[in-house]
Amino acid sequence: MTTTPAQLAAAIPKAELHIHIEGSLEPELIFALAQRNGLSLPYPSVEALRDAYAFTNLQSFLDIYYAGASVLLHEADFHDMAWAYFLRAKADNVVHTEIFFDPQTHTARGVPMATVIQGLSSACERARAELGVSAALILCFLRHLSEDDAFATLEAALPYRQHFIGVGLDSSEVGHPPSKFSRVFARCRELGFHVVAHAGEEGPPAYIREAIDDLKTERIDHGVRSLEDPALVAELARRRIPLTVCPLSNLKLCVVDDLRQHPMKRLLDAGLCATVNSDDPAYFGGYMNANFVQTVEALDLSRDDVITLARNSFEASFVSATRRAELMALLDDAVA
Ligand code: HPA
Ligand SMILES: [Zn+2]
């Protein structure tokens, strides 16, 4: 029996590097946590909530995403959310994952930083022990808030610094350029954290340039608008700065009108270290394999493209050289 590129994409081991853990909160779990915590929701049912997931742009999604996250109060809530994600990741043959979390969404509601980080961190340890999935956390600053707020968040998180490997930048992009966070990112680099940033999802290629030049980010999250600036594409390719691309997110947030117009193939053909990721899978219609399979089918990607995407995911990850070699060997075995 021959394997199609889409079947291969589903079957092979891969890393996920762009997943907001709050975006993995399924409507069923939102309702269950609301009930557990004695909260009422402005939607009568799971179906009514899911029906509200019709987005026109990034902001229309963020409004409902932050509302969904408001059911998270206790350490067990954060743990249970992340554990549900790990089970989905495992089912999709994700063997390593680097997970974004948005502490300001929770601390602004009075949830202590310790509650957020310890709940997520214990789920990461459990994933390693029970599922063999390696996992690390990346703390994201909300870019619609001030740099002072980001500094205060960093300060509050530093007692738990052994639990996260890096920092990122997310939320409303346009009007909040990376340079707004130059000083706090410089401090994070000094402290030895990995640094990434969302750029070029809705924002212009100039924001990608700011992220790499000013924030000195090691990866760009999304970055699909880089294609509007050929000199930038050439530099990203030459420096092997990875892009963590999220095809179903781009479709649901109307960054592209149709998956057949998605730039993934053009990014690969330009020699970029592009990867496939789910972003906010509970909101955008699918986890890792849904993204992989639908993109492969829509763009008619080849077996080689699929293997390149999986290799890129390991190359772009922040694992040790030993773990990277282990992951690459898993992939080699799977495609042999
Ligand atoms: O796709 C996204 N972009 C920006 N901020 C986000 N926060 C969650 N998902 C996203
Ligand atoms: Zn994202």
UniProtKB/TrEMBL annotation:
> What does the note accompanying the cofactor annotation read?
Binds 1 zinc ion per subunit.
User: Enzyme class, one word?
Assistant: hydrolase
InterPro entries in UniProt: A_deaminase_dom, ADE, Ado/ade_deaminase, Metal_Hydrolase
Q: Which residues bind Zn(2+)?
A: H18, H20, H198, D279
Q: Which GO terms describe its molecular function?
A: hydrolase activity
The cofactors it requires, by name, are: Zn(2+)
Q: Hydrolase: is it a keyword of this entry?
A: yes
Query: Reaction(s) catalyzed by this protein?
Result: adenine + H2O + H(+) = hypoxanthine + NH4(+)
Could you say which protein family the record assigns here? Answer: Belongs to the metallo-dependent hydrolases superfamily. Adenosine and AMP deaminases family. Adenine deaminase type 2 subfamily.
Protein name in UniProt = Adenine deaminase
Q: Which organism is it from?
A: Hydrogenophaga laconesensis
